[in-house]
Design a protein that fits this description.
700 residues, Ubiquitin-like (UB roll), 15% helix
Amino acid sequence: MKSVKQSDLLTSIYTTASYCNSFLLKPFCWISKSKYFYTRKYLDHQELHRDVLRARVFYWKRGFRETEVDTAVVSRGHNQVGVTFLIKEGPPTLISDIAVNQPTPTLLSKREINKRVVLSKNAPLNMIRLDSSRFFLQTALFDKGYADAEVDTTIVLDSAAHTAAVTFTLLPKYQTTVEDIVIKGNDDVSSHTILKSLTFHIGDIFKRSEMLRSQRALYESNLFRRAAIEPRPPIDIATPDSAKIVVVTVQESPPREARISAGFNTIDFAQLESRFTDYNFFGSARRLDVQGVVGNLFARSLSGRGIFQNATIPQTSALSRYFVPTYNASIDLTQPWFGSPHNSLGVSLFTHRRSAPGIYVDRGYGTSLTFTRELAERAPTSINYRFEISKVDAGDVYFCINFGVCDQPTLESLRGNQKLSPITLTSSIDRTNDPFSPNTGFRANGSLEHASTFTVSDFRYNRATADGAAFYQVRKRGAIGAHVRVGWVRSLGSTAQAVGISTSLGDGVLHPRKRFYAGGAHSVRGFGENQLGPRVLTVPISVLQTHDSTNAACLTGTDVTTCDPNAPKLKDRDFVARPLGGNFVMEGSVEARFPVWGELTGAAFVDAGMVTQRTSPDLPRRKGAVTPGFGFRYRSPVGPIRADIGIAPASSESLPVITENIVNGQKTLVRLQQRRIYAPNKGGGFLNRMVLHLSIGEAF
């Protein structure tokens, strides 16, 4: 067997060997042949004789028309036999010529034909590929408006030379049009609303691709549990065959839906979510969504324990803001098929409280307006304007490092309300075969964002992101995926004055949400959430004075900057690593996904990423890392439930150290003269380098 894959042939015959139910169960299969571990297969002599014919047909379809197949059955012990298929492939029948005949003027270009004919000259005469080529050519004619087109195939064999000449003859017949559209089965949804969803109208050229596209639009509205679009012959026999009456048959779904759900992950601890949706709000398929999510529940008690070990936040009064519950509430109204079946218009009211642990808490409320047009199937482009009143609640360290402001009056001003009002252009394309766990195809999206005086924003910047993933199928259920993410942002010079800062830091004055961070369940999984990138260390002055008791200037507070952050008694756990975020991010991942047992699949991955900041030349400029890992997914009705373990590098880095200096009751931040060699993953062995992530959905 040289010309076909053995695995393909085995799937086409009935006789199969007994097998262990899973690779992970191999040790149990050596001990026991219980049905829970091992599947027994029995020899059926009648099916074995049929398998000879099945194998010959298998080869015949693939161009080997003189293949000979025999079998041998050998005893392998008590009640056990071995079956051998003896195959003599023989010479293949090779394709000597491929021709496509079509009427004049030609309907399909040479490029269109080459794209759809999947046969090749001097290759075996594969009947499966021949039929696929015929179907692809016929579909191409359908998309040109020739709905009754046919494609004939002719094969001229030369048995002596073992060659075949293949000819495809295109018979387009006549171009078809839509004579009428009939709606059936609707009760609450008006026929006018259904007609607005269709991408074709009476008098248009009839194309089956537009029927499929319209059918998808009906399903995506969630108004119908069944939607069929089919042509039927005209009732009037005097009407020519080229006119098609299209019948749209629907079965309506419940117009309203409500749900409550709960869950947890290693980022947001426990969460509760409620959602109400009206899919036909005041008719016209207008959609109303009311949603509320509460997260960060039980954060104070769970942080630093069990699976939440990497979500540790020191429980001090200065960081208590990160243990308060987060929330996100919104009311969204969407009008699909706005002026065209390819358009939609949405308006939203929202409020939220978000937390990036150890970095900032972001509160805001506002409204947004979005116009979306589907330029091609599963390729929408949107323009969005979002007006938000935002309030950033963060420690003094964050503002002092990222904004260059350390005095209390200005800090209080920065913690006040600021306008964040960007206009964003977003485009995406999705050519994957599954929205939850794809194994073939690709998807990509990109966005351009601008905020300035023109958009009535205090934070003013330009921002661009690009994100893409591709998947290649391996066997039946396995896949190899690759993911790339790139982002860039730069603030405008007028931001400093708009937000109340007297000095300008160039690229440094950015809203924390618009900075880029790396690390986490959907990023570089060898790091905790947002922990890959430039960082600084913070430590209470009392801890420094306790462990650097020989330094008189440090102990008395006359010169706190001389405190030694590398004093022998100081441990890495005494410091808190604070991500700075960055102006540029680049990430990449390669992941192999493979079946394990039933709905359980495994994954092995390598992630890499880098974040660069331009806030201050005195701070770490960039930080990057490569982290391998492995994980498991369980395919549930709501999507893959994922557990990943990333392996952090056992490396150290020299980081600036920030502490506070209290003079006359006034607290100010100061940077120590010495940096600390920070290596939290070096001690404690290999297990200390493992970072666990729990979430729903694939990493990319």
